[in-house]
Amino acid sequence: MAYDLKREDEVKEYIENLGIEYRFGCYKEKKPEVCHLLGDYLEAIKKDFEKAAKVFKSNCLDYNFGKSCLKYGNYALVGRGNIKGSPSEALPYFEKGCELNDPTACLHAGMILTATGPGINVKRDVPKGYNYLKKSCDQKDDMACHYLSGMYLTGVPKNVSDFNPHNPEKNKNIDYLIKPDKKQAFQFALKGCEYGNMYACANVSVMYKKGDGVEKNEEESKKYFTIAQNLQKAHETTKEIKFQQGLEK
């Protein structure tokens, strides 16, 4: 049946039928992809976050659908859908999503395990977190590559309280879980840039300019500075398009 989406009554009918179709595909045909779509439908169209959370959780645990593990992990992290929000609640779902090869789930698991500070109620495990971040970067997640670059740029101290960002000389004498390595930092920044991270491109530009982890090269520095600028402009344009979408008739 063809719907006239300019008519309000037909739009409502279309949306209701879409929900029926997704429920049938999920509950009767037991298709994980359709269950995930049902969760998205409940979230975006019905604004029923509690039901959406249940669908995502079930689809993660029962059908091993990585994207649903990521989605429920996000709910558990921020406390959406009548769930107690905390990193410890979210981490198992991000880890399962990562095992199911969702790169963003790997990113989130890695960031939680390597993070410090207030509100982080998960035991820090930098080696495990590093492996999650590396897997995410290997699957072309630009933010994971950028994050890894930052870890190598400053190093990851064994005791965070020993690290003083304003005293590089003192930092040379502390114990590191990951020692500063500008060559590795450059390589991960380069990967992040190749995958479209404007901050990684900006860092590559600076590293070429200073000769940090790579031989000084003014031309390459200018090249990556331009790439970073172009990515920033593209990002701003995309945001503007999304904001204006539907406003013009």
Description:
The chain has 249 residues and is mostly helical. The protein has twelve helices and two strands. It has a two-stranded antiparallel ribbon with strand order 1-2. Mean pLDDT is 91; it is low at 243-249. The longest helix has 27 residues, at 218-244. The chain has helices at residues 8-28, 32-44, 49-63, 66-78, 87-99, 103-114, 126-138, 142-154, 168-171, 182-194, 198-210, 218-244; strands at 156-157, 176-178. It has a domain at 10-139: Tetratricopeptide repeat domain (Serine Threonine Protein Phosphatase 5, Tetratricopeptide repeat, Alpha Horseshoe). 68% of the residues lie in helices and 2% in strands.
Main features:
about 250 residues, mainly alpha, Serine Threonine Protein Phosphatase 5, Tetratricopeptide repeat, two-stranded antiparallel sheet, 2 strands, about 0% strand, disordered C terminus, Cytochrome c oxidase assembly factor 7 homolog, repeat, Sel1-like
> Structural class, from helix and strand content?
mainly alpha
- CATH superfamily of the domain at 10-139, please? Tetratricopeptide repeat domain
Distance between the termini: 25 Å
CATH architecture of the domain at 10-139: Alpha Horseshoe
Q: Biggest sheet: strands, sense, closure?
A: 2 strands, antiparallel
Q: Low-confidence segments, ≥5 residues, pLDDT <50?
A: 243-249
Shape, per Cα inertia axes: globular
- The fold-level CATH name of the domain at 10-139 is Serine Threonine Protein Phosphatase 5, Tetratricopeptide repeat
Strand residues, percent = under 5%
- Compressed to H and E, one letter per element, the order equals HHHHHHHHEHEHHH
Average of per-residue pLDDT values = 91
Quick one: how many beta strands? Answer: 2
What is the percent of helical residues?
A: 55-70%
What is the strand arrangement across the widest sheet?
A: 1-2
Regarding CATH, which class of the domain at 10-139? Mainly Alpha
* Helix count from the secondary structure assignment: 12
Radius of gyration: 22 Å
